[in-house]
Design a protein that fits this description.
Number of strands: 9
Distance between the termini: 30 Å
Mean pLDDT: 88
Number of helices: 3
Helix content: 10-25%
Structural class: alpha+beta
Largest sheet: 5 strands, antiparallel
Strand content: over 45%
Order of helices and strands: EEEEHEHEEEEH
Shape: globular
CATH class: Mainly Beta
Length: 167
Amino acid sequence: MPYYIGGMEPSKWSVPSNDGWHQCDFVNERWIKRNNELLVVARLTVQGKNWDQVESLEKFENAEVVDHSNYQLNQIIIPHKALTELVNEVEHWLKSPRNFKVQLCDNDQQLLSIAVEDKHRLITSKRKPVFSLACSSGRTGFECHYIIDPTCLSILHEGLVSSLQLR
């Protein structure tokens, strides 16, 4: 039976895109312990902007940037050790960029992975890789991909370290 761990306030960590059009936010709602494993129950929100699709049908040059997508999952359960692995991978990337993928949760109910890669169908480089998030929970699933840079990963790192109270 899981039990709530008090004293840990909700906290947030984010991954913005380098153009400011997309952002992935995780809010650590509460911590629980199950079978001696520390887990966070998080809310995941992914938001994106794009050119107005209707306006761009007529004349792309006149299209405005509008809210395009908004996905939210309210109970993603992530082991603390997976978040620590993500912190380590981001630290390594900030020192020496390389592709990585971290499986944040993988169980019968939920799958969640984060990858940073310089090879994707988007135009990228080693210092401007693609952030990829793949998620499925119950009967819902989605993927998102957008370009990031070292500043975006520094924001992720700072939020994670603060959120996990690692330092």
